[in-house]
Amino acid sequence: MAFFYITPELNAEVEMSAESTEKNENIAGINIGDGFVSVSRMVRRGRKKILLTHAGWMEYAPDATDDEMVRVIRKLWKKAKMPTRTVCAGLQSRSLCLKYFKYPDLSQIELTSALKLEAEETLQLPPEKIMLDWHLNRPRSDPYTQQGEQLQGVLVAVAKDQVVRQMNLVKKAGLFPVMMDVGCMSLCNLFLTLRGDSVTTENAVCVVNLSRYNADISVLYNDHYIYPRTIISRSAEWASKVQYLIENISDALLYYHVKVDKTPVNRLVLTGFVPDSSEFLGQIHDTIGLPTEVWNPLKDKNFMIAHGAKSSKKDEAITPLMTTSLGLGLRNT
Predict the structure, then answer these.
(1) Which of 20, 56, 215, 322 would be a feasible disulfide site paired with 38, CB 3.0-4.6 Å?
(2) Same domain, 189 and 229
(3) Cβ contact 92:32 at 8 Å
(4) Residues 239, 114: one domain?
(5) Shared-domain flag, residues 151 and 174
């Protein structure tokens, strides 16, 4: 999935690098947003299973300054006894550009130029003030771009100063950011790792991750293809905005059908900060008309938790909010 590689040469500059990190580099995931910070580190145990070795979360005030957030991160890192300071950080921004694209007959150079122009038009910024990356929807057995074919995938673009601020925030906390990822991609990585067998050329799945005020909606189809959307509830948490959520899930499914016209979606999976209400789930199921389930990755059959990472009784009430950081932590596996 799409992500930014970060070369932090200066606090004021960020460059996207084509170099990958070492295969066995010890990387933790950290997600900052919606009033809390969550961190996780995982390792693989076989082809499908993953083991959570270190984890934790901590809230911060909505009006917290950067210095106050740095102190929260430092305190959380110590609380979780995290064995590494190298991180993949989640990037949250209300102005993030996350768009599905489809272009016929473009070379790699032409695709890069087209996506840069699309990012400039969407963000209304000059190219030197934009960071962008993209994920191509292609079979795993054929990951390379050939000239003269139809290219489709997901464009991710954001103002560079927002990436710089996020990078500097974690750097001031004593961490070393080598990658930044967005919620939709993190969600897809986590779901495909734990439940990838449910996504085939015949069966597509719509996965929705709710944080307190954001929702990442991703249609997964045809192995690791993705059709994503991110929405924001500006005024209230999802328990009182269920109709708004339903409308956006329905729109995502409609546009997926119109623009992609691939495998039909046969299941809706909700995860994250899902309101504990049968009426909430029932209204979504009855309106959208798909089999609907609530999925807690921490309780997935392929997910294991090391004894030292198990949360206290108090922590368990908020662990679904860690879904994004779990996906970010997969960069270590």
Answers:
(1) 322
(2) yes
(3) yes
(4) no
(5) no
Could you tell me the two tokens for 332? Answer: 């270590």
List the end-to-end C-alpha distance of the chain, in Å, as a whole number.
14
- Contact (Cβ atoms closer than 8 angstroms) between residue 178 and residue 21: yes
DSSP reduced 3-state for 272: strand
Query: Are 253 and 281 in the same domain?
Result: yes
Question: For tokens 């070393």, what's the residue?
Answer: 176
Q: pTM score, two decimals?
A: 0.86
Pick from 277, 296, 264, 200: nearest CA to 238: 277
CB 52 within 8 A of CB 326: yes
Q: Convert the pLDDT of each residue in 174-216 to its tens digit.
A: 999 988 899 888 999 899 999 988 888 888 999 999 988 889 9
Longest C-alpha distance within the chain, in Å?
Answer: 57
- Distance CA(110)–CA(166), nearest Å, equals 31
**Which tokens hold the place of 197?**
């067998």
Which domain covers residue 35, as residue numbers? 4-94+161-332
Considering the domain architecture, whether residues 282 and 226 belong to the same structural domain is answered as yes
- Measure CA 108 to chain center: 25
Q: What is the pLDDT of residues 15-38, one digit of tens each?
A: 333 333 444 568 999 999 888 899
Name the residue among 93, 85, 92, 76 with its Cα closest to residue 39. 76
Q: Which stretches in the chain have pLDDT values below 50?
A: 1-2, 7-23, 148, 312, 314, 317
The count of other CB atoms within 10 Å of the CB of residue 256 is 24
